[in-house]
Design brief:
47% of the residues lie in helices and 6% in strands. By secondary structure, the protein is mostly helical. The chain folds into two domains: 2-90, TIM Barrel, CATH 3.20.20; 99-166, Non-ribosomal Peptide Synthetase Peptidyl Carrier Protein, Chain A, CATH 1.10.1200. The chain has a three-stranded parallel beta sheet with strand order 1-2-3, with helices on one face. Helix 3 packs across helix 4 (80-90). The longest helix is centred in the middle third of the chain and has 19 residues, at 99-117. The chain is elongated. The two termini are 23 Å apart. Residues 176-180 have low confidence and may be disordered.
């Protein structure tokens, strides 16, 4: 209430406590309580553990929030936004991005990272991002090990091209996830 009274126009609430850091499940029941408090007049956005279109729609509907914020699920997988938008609009899953799309975006991310932070820091920071772009490819670990040891954009691009050629026909399978409310019986 005090923030609303101070003039903020919207609020995003993360359902995980500071003590939890990145562990445990986000507690959306608290987000729902804030949103459904009759004194709250501003838009409330929920954040925490949204990693699929199905979960985004389910949590939006279940807790009555005005919108959903996406965090870690978008790292290395920026397609989650279009997938959620499509699912909310149509109720249908979009096909997963192809290997070609993933490699192209990964290369662009690398290029922009280098432009922004310079070659050494840009390449080093990208090392933690390849896993997100390549997640789900069988046998990808050997390629990932190679990628994190490379020091030039040209070497990295060559390995990414090799990955694209190797997995050209691969089709990702998307399956609905099981939604579980871990906080339903919480004693706190």
């Amino acid at each position: 209430m005090r923030l609303q009274d101070a003039g903020i126009r919207a609020l995003t609430i993360h359902g995980r406590t500071r003590c939890q850091l990145y562990k445990g499940e986000a507690d959306w029941t608290l987000i729902g309580k804030v949103k459904n408090d009759p004194r709250i007049k501003i838009p409330i956005f929920g954040n925490g553990d949204i990693d699929s279109p199905q979960k985004a729609l389910e949590y939006k509907n279940r807790y009555g929030v005005d919108g959903i914020m996406i965090g870690r699920a978008a790292i290395g997988y920026p397609w989650i936004f279009r997938e959620i938008k499509h699912y909310i609009t149509t109720g249908e899953w979009l096909p997963a991005p192809t290997v070609q799309e993933r490699v192209a975006v990964c290369k662009k991310h690398l290029q922009k990272s280098i432009e922004w932070k310079g070659p050494i820091m840009g390449i080093n920071e990208m090392r933690g991002r390849y896993a997100g772009y390549l997640k789900g490819l069988p046998g990808i670990k050997d390629f990932q090990k190679r990628l994190v040891l490379l020091r030039t954009p040209e070497e990295i691009a060559a390995v990414l091209d090799e990955i694209q050629a190797c997995y050209e026909e691969y089709q990702w399978q998307q399956a609905p996830i099981e939604l579980i409310n871990y906080h339903e019986n919480c004693v706190l």
